Amino acid sequence: MASRTVDLSRGGVFIQMAEPRPMGTLVSMSMQIGDGREITVSGVVVRSVRPEDLSGPPGVAVVFTNVDEPAKSELERLLAEKLARSKTAGP
After folding, report:
1. How far is CA 64 from each of CA 30, 81, 82, rounded to the nearest angstrom?
2. Could you read off the pLDDT of 22-64 as tens digits, one per residue?
3. Which of 21, 51, 59, 79 could form a disulfide with 16 if both were Cys (CB 3.0 to 4.6 A apart)?
């Protein structure tokens, strides 16, 4: 299923989707990041926001449970690039 990541960190991700999976769902996902790089990680849904909820866009918060070293390196690089861009953009 294709979906959109809204918030990415070292420990997890929030994924927007029309039909969120229930809490506790185990997931394995491939994410295309940056300039077409792809990483594969596993995780578990820890929060599910239904479309009828008023707490934000529908989707799921996933905590990573298995990130191999190459994927971890890619995540670190992506987050460092994002931080550098935000520092140069200023307030």
Report:
1. 12, 21, 20
2. 999 999 988 887 677 788 899 999 999 998 887 778 999 999 9
3. 59
Domain regions of the chain by residue span = 4-89
Q: What pLDDT is attached to residue 14?
A: 93
- pTM of the prediction? 0.81
CA distance 30 to 7: 16
Name all contacts of 41-48 with Cβ < 8 Å and 24+ positions apart: 41/66, 41/67, 41/71, 42/66, 42/67, 43/12, 43/13, 45/20, 45/21, 46/12, 47/23, 48/20, 48/21, 48/22, 48/23
Could you tell me the CATH superfamily of domain 4-89?
predicted glycosyltransferase like domains (2.40.10.220)
